[in-house]
Structures are given as C-alpha cells and as structure tokens.
Amino acid sequence: MTQPTSTTPIKATLVDITKCIGCRACQVACKQWNDRDGEETQLDFNLGFQNPATLSAKTLTLITFHELPDEKAPGGLHYLFTMRRCLHCLEPACASACPTTALDRRSDGPVIYDANKCIGCRYCIWACPWGVPTAEWDSLAPKIQKCTHCADRTEQPPPMARNGQALTDEESKQYRENIVTPACVKACPADCLSFGTRDEILQKARNRISDHPDKYVDHIYGEKEAGGTSVLYLSSVPFEKLGFPEAVSGAFQTGAACRTTGCHGGGCYARGRLRIL
User: Fold this and answer.
1) What's the pLDDT at 8?
2) Which domains does the chain have, with CATH numbers?
C-alpha cells in the first residue's frame, strides 16, 4: 500500500448532502463510465424510490433515500438523499486485509483494484467498515468490484484535434486537468459534488459550516473516521440518522495476521462494525 506523503496532493470529493436532489445523475454516469449493466430490481416500500437497494458489482455508486420526521416540513417529513460509494480511506482496511495486494492505495488517494491478483477470498468485504466492496455473485469465479474514484480517467490521452483544429498546448493542459474529475462529479447538476485536493475540500467544507452554522451539523464525515478518507460528507442532520456507522477516529488495525480466523490484518477488526446498507 502506498502511503500518503506531504508532497503528494490527495484527490478528494466533497458530498454536500444538503444540496443533493436525488436525481441519480451520478449513479448513471458511474455506470456509463465503468460500463456496468443495469440491474433487474423491484420496488421496496421500505426504501421508497431508492433503486437498487444496495451497492453491488453492477452498481458502484448508489443514491439512498431517507425520510426523517420533521413537523415543520410539508407532510411532516424531511427528505434527504445520500451518495454511497467507496470513501477511499487514507489507510484502507480492505487493502491491508488483502493477502495478494489486489487492492492498493495510490499515493494520490484512490484505492484501486487489480482483478488479475484477486483470489476471491473476500477478506476485503469483511474489512471495510462501510460494506463497500461487493462480489460478482452471478459469476462462477466471482471477483470484487468497487468505485475507484475514476482513477483510470488519468490514463485518457488528450485528443489530437477538436472541430478539425489541433489543440494548443494550453488546451491540452486544460484537458488533462479536467479529465481527472470523476464522472459522478461532472454529471451532478446540483453542485452537490466538489472535486479537488483534500486540503482544498476540507477548507471548503469548513467554510460552508462556518458560513451557515444553521444549515450544517458541525461535523465533516471522513475527516477523521477510520484514519481519514478521500470522500468527505456534509449534512444538515447527524450522520447516524442517515445510516452512517460511527467508525473509529484512528485507522483500522493493519499489518498483523488475525489470530482467530487466520485472515490478514483488518479482516476481523471491522466485523462488529455497522455497515452502510
């Protein structure tokens, strides 16, 4: 696992739950970029219009629907929509639990996956405190799937020309700077998602809280949870009301082999933790 350094800018995304309108453009953009098939689903009245019910090998980004009692809101209910996806921990338990280094953290933040190294042990599923990695359960040799923070977008070369005109050096530079923005962030029409370095995103989140203390709870989810993450959240209500687990502030155990099941560090440590469903 590549550890972050003081000279490596960590890419981060801010999810401002107060701005999300539940349009699921991010969910569709993620499927399109990662070439994921649609899922056959059915209406679950307990979930409202949330669809599908959970993250899966075909759905790497999911918008969950929440109805919270609020006497001041129309109908007595306050609706909030929340983006679920990999949080890209700074010290990911999934990568620590993986015995073959199929999961690894890049120095700039994304936790990526190499299917060629995966042996299907699924220790990462147990290790993740948010229940993000999912298996291809409809496959005879199931591999793991998860959001990669669109790390592969950095590999896209700039086009040679646009509208028949060769790109200037400045246009090529601008293309390379913009293409790294995740597909979900580019698709969001409500300014719910912001992308930048982790320092920039943290400062933006702090500014929003200080500028509108009546609008946000004083908590940036992911700043310290599980040792810190590259995907950060702002909310108008306590995060536990939206199903976010109260993960420990420090990083999960890493490195040491599990003495009870034989799995590699981190695998059992998260078993007793709540999952995001």
Assistant:
1) 80
2) 11-242 (3.30.70.20)
